[in-house]
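>> received
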Amino acid sequence: MELDTSKPISIVGAARSGRSAAELLARHGVDSIVYDSDGGRVLRWMREIAAEPWSGRVSHAHESDVARAGCLVLSPGVPVDAPIVRAARERGARIIGEVELAWNFCRSTLVCVTGTNGKSTTVGIIGDILTSSGYTVAVAGNVGTPFSSVVDGAYDIVVLELSSFQLDTIDALRARVAVLLNVTPDHLDRYQNRFDAYVESKQRILRNRDENTHFVYNRGDPVGVALAAQNPGTNSSFGFDPSPDGGVSLVDDVFVQVRDGNTIRILERNEFTPLGLHNAENAMAAIAAVIAFDVPTDTVASALRKYRPLPHRMELVRVLAGVWWVNDSKATNVDAAIRSIESARGCVVVILGGRDKDGDFTLLRRVGDRVRLAVLIGEASAVIAAALGSGWECTPATSMGEAVAVARSAAQPGDTVLLAPACASFDMFDNYEQRGEVFRQCVEELEESQ
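>> returned
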């Protein structure tokens, strides 16, 4: 552990990952101070942990304390260009993230997955396959369980979902398997509206690649293809087009892998239950990722058959009067919403809106022929309506309950009502999970007949 403990170590951000970072340091006898712009959040946490028998000390920091820190450990929600971070960097402080901190203590083999869409599903599938193969596995990172909270466990493998925010603050972290699913515009509000800066963040997954790194990329994604070309070595690809040697494809609705010139049949598509072509891509990425561990084909197939989608990701809530109600609250950007609409059954009544992340909503026009009605909620309602233009029928709603009621009135038997917001949730909800839960509750409360 190469941390200078002669100066204070400051954890910036006292939400889930910040707390986990402080607790990790305490378990190893390292003192830290925790700063959050919401000082009350820190104080409430301090009261919760007062009785914990830790060897290290955690204390509440003020902004002046952060100014004296030799190292800042940032939670993902803290921008690297925040004033308090810039000031510390100018003074020579080391700036890392919670993931990088945990990496310093890691003794497990690391599988890292990033991309704009599909990360959580893919890490879940990889975790299930490796567990079925007999490894002890933890799934952590942006999926909801901080890396710091599992790194001291005796796991053979940690499968880590990494967001662009987390990748921005890695330094020495190196993955045994690095997976790049796709890169489309997202979080541009965090990257000064520069897609190239967002791309650079995603490419950091190979920042410390060595001869043992197995890189998995999407043959249909230009960023992944370019990165593979720049990093020759042990690469595996996945995609819907015919596969080169070592790649994974979907051929005649069968997942296959080409190995040593031979085509190996893995599983029929209809045996893998998650809806949508994007979930087929996630399955292919997982198959390619476990190539590095020589998992038997029948084990891969069995794990894929048993896999069930995570909540809020193309989750079928119910079928009512011939209408499918689907919760894809995790579709927090335009590309994810497009994929959801393309994957839905029949005509779609889609609930869109929330907090704009500087997405290009005009791209939704390409799936307009699939959409019967767009019900618009949240801060971005007017922006989305203007971007969609006269080719779409749009109706505003002031709450999720009203949106569900409007959608029910518009939907016809054979349609899908789809929550695919294309936006962040923070204008109306705490997070995308709460948004999905409220949608689910509203749908479950619908009566059989109006």
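>> The first helix runs from residue 16 to 27.
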